[in-house]
Amino acid sequence: MESLSFPNTPKHKTIDLTNLLLHRTIRKKMNFTFFAIITILCTIGFTHAYESPPYTLIHTESDFEIRLYKESVWMTAPVKETSFRKATNDGFHRLFQYIEGANLNNSRVAMTVPVLTSIVPGAGPLDSSAYVVHFYLPDKFQATPPLPLPELNLKPDSWTTTCKAVRQFSGFARDKNTVEEAGKLETSLRGSGYSTSSASNFAYSIAQYNSPLKFFGRLNEVWVDVDGCESAKVAAY
Questions:
Q1: Residues 80, 83, 138, 230: is their CA dihedral positive or negative?
Q2: In angstroms, rounded to a whole number, what is the distance separating the alpha carbons of residues 207 and 40?
Q3: Which residues on neighbouring strands pair with residue 160, listed in sequence order?
Q4: Burial grade of 33 (CB within 10 A; 0-12, 13-18, 19 or more)
Q5: Model confidence over 124-161: pLDDT tens digits?
Q6: Is the CB of residue 227 less than 8 Å from the CB of residue 163?
Q7: Which of 173, 167, 178, 166 is nearest to 212 (CA)?
Q8: What is the DSSP string of 40-102?
C-alpha cells in the first residue's frame, strides 16, 4: 500500500495516501449529491403538475378576470392569528399532517394547488383576526373525504358553484403585499360590472401555487367572491 510520509514525522503518524484520496473522493461525492438533491427539489417545485379546482373563465380584463368555479370539497383549518404568514404556516402544517395520513382512514392524499388562505373580516391590524386555510381535495376524495384526526381541528367544506374575481401577482405572499394586492383588486372591481358578494364569509382569499423552493416566477392570486356572473352559468355548463 502506498503511503505518504513527511520528514521528521514518526511512523505512527504516517498519512495513508489511499485513505486521504478516499476521503477527498467521498467529500466530492457528498457535495455533488447535496447539489443534485437541491436541483431535484427545485425542479419538482417548478414543474410538477397538481390537481386544482376546475373553473370556467367568464370575463377577462387587463388586471383581473372572472372565474366560475364548480362545486367542490375542501379540507379547512381555522386559525386565530393576526399575521397572514403565520396563519398560513400553522394551517398548512395541520393540513399537511392530514394528507400524510393523519386521518381515520390512514389515507395518503395527493398534494393539490392552490393552498388557499381566506381572511375573515375582523378588528386585527391587517383587517383580520382569523383565517381559514383551505386544501382542495383531489377528485379521488371529492365524494368521500378521509375524516381528519380530531386533534388537528380540521373540517371539510363543500363549496357551491362560486363566482370569483381573481388578480394575479408574483413573488412570495407576505403580510404586506397580500393586503396591497387585495386593495388593487377592490379598486379594479369598482369600475366593472361585478360587485363583491354580500353572502361571502371572507373579505378575500390568497391562493399560492408554488413550492417554497421556487424562488423565481412564482404565482399567487387574490380571490374575491362576486355577484354578476349568474347568467353565465347556462353557458358554462
A1: positive
A2: 24
A3: none
A4: exposed
A5: 444 456 999 999 999 999 999 999 999 999 999 999 99
A6: yes
A7: 173
A8: HHHHHHHH---B---EEEEEE-SS-EEEEEPPEEEEEEEEE-S-HHHHHHHHHHHHHHHHTT-
Q: How far apart are CA 225 and CA 198, in angstroms?
A: 9
Q: How far apart are CA 125 and CA 110, in angstroms?
A: 35
List the chain residues with pLDDT less than 70. Answer: 1-48, 123-129, 230-237
B/e letters for 198-231, b = 16+ CB within 10 Å, e = fewer, are eebebbbbbbbebbeebeeebebbbbbbbebbee
First-to-last alpha carbon distance for the chain, in angstroms, is 78
Spatial CA neighbour of 77 closest among 34, 49, 118, 44: 118
Q: DSSP characters for 171-223?
A: S---HHHHHHHHHHHHHHHHTSS-EE-TT-S-SEEEEE-S-TT--SS--EEEE
Indicate the burial class of 79 (C-beta count within 10 angstroms; 0-12, 13-18, 19 or more): buried
Distance CA 228, CA 164 (A): 10
Coil/strand/helix, residue 111: coil
Bridge partners for 205 per DSSP:
118, 223
**Which pLDDT score, from 0 to 100, does residue 235 have?**
41
